[in-house]
């Protein structure tokens, strides 16, 4: 691409990953409006799709397929609960006991789930971010077991990333 930068990269692609929040269709429309300038005249991709513009551009939107809305946290929360059930329930009790009405977690369900996932994981990952709670450290160790990432959503995301139209 640009040898002046000392890289042997020959191709690039851009994968955009979002939550659907209230509506998958609204997220797709917002993406199309916000990123039309980089599409080089191509139509914007829809969920799990790619377009060939100047370089491949893809869109993946986390959502519940039945409701066509939702967030990554709504998909991950049941996995964390299955892995650490007692800690998950106790984290919920703690949050319900101490959350203030004006706290972000009291205003938006996905923020509550982020907090509950993070509090649950702090026993194993004190002070670490949410990303470490739901992933595995190099060389193994605590974290969600690989078995949790064999479901339809995980397969769909991997298929999307492997489907770059080079």
Approximate strand percentage: 5-15%
Query: Poorly predicted ranges (pLDDT <50, ≥5 residues)?
Result: none
Count of beta strands: 3
The tally of helices reads 7
* Euclidean distance between termini CA atoms: 15 Å
Number of domains: 2
Q: What would the average pLDDT be, to the nearest integer? A: 90
User: N-to-C SSE series?
Assistant: EHEEHHHHHH
Query: Which sheet architecture does the biggest sheet show?
Result: 3 strands, mixed
Alpha carbon gyration radius: 19 Å
What helical percentage do the residues reach? 40-55%
Strand order, largest beta sheet: 1-3-2
Give the overall shape, derived from the CA principal axes.
globular
Structural class: mainly alpha
Write up what this structure looks like.
- With 166 residues, the protein is mainly α.
- The protein has 2 domains: 3-67, no CATH class; 72-147, no CATH class.
- The chain is 42% helix and 10% strand.
- It has 7 helices and 3 strands, in the order βαββαααααα.
- The protein has helices at 24-35, 72-83, 85-98, 104-107, 109-121, 130-133, 152-162; strands at 14-19, 49-52, 56-62.
- Strands 1-3-2 form a 3-stranded mixed sheet, sandwiched between helices.
- α2 (72-83) crosses α3 (85-98), α2 packs parallel to α5 and α3 packs across α5.
Short recap of the structure:
The protein is mainly alpha-helical and 166 residues long. 42% of the residues lie in helices and 10% in strands.
